[in-house]
What does this fold into?
Amino acid sequence: MDSVLINAKGFGGNNASAVILSPQITETLLSKRYSSAQMQHWQLRREKVKETAQAYDLSATRGISRPLYLYDHQVLTGEDLSISDQEIKLPGYPNPVSINVENPYKDFTN
It folds into this structure.
């Protein structure tokens, strides 16, 4: 499977959807954006990430690591945000999130 859409239903109407791309599709997209030398460098660095993930998976499988759930922890509401046609400002963060950006992936569309 190349891609899937997932949807999470939250509490009080907090829902989220996301696209998940397969590793093969992701690497194909990355290889269009980066040189082969950059891809090789990334693949070497990725090995450490894979090792860390495998260690965590083993720990979780054995029941050593426990999930941490902080209900209502640092949840922001619409009133907490400052939204304009150029940016979104979040309390506690010094830099706003710019929404005035050009799509860097328009060359991937048909």
In short: The chain is about 35% helix and 20% strand. The radius of gyration is 19 Å. The helical segments are 23-33, 36-61. The longest helix spans residues 36-61.
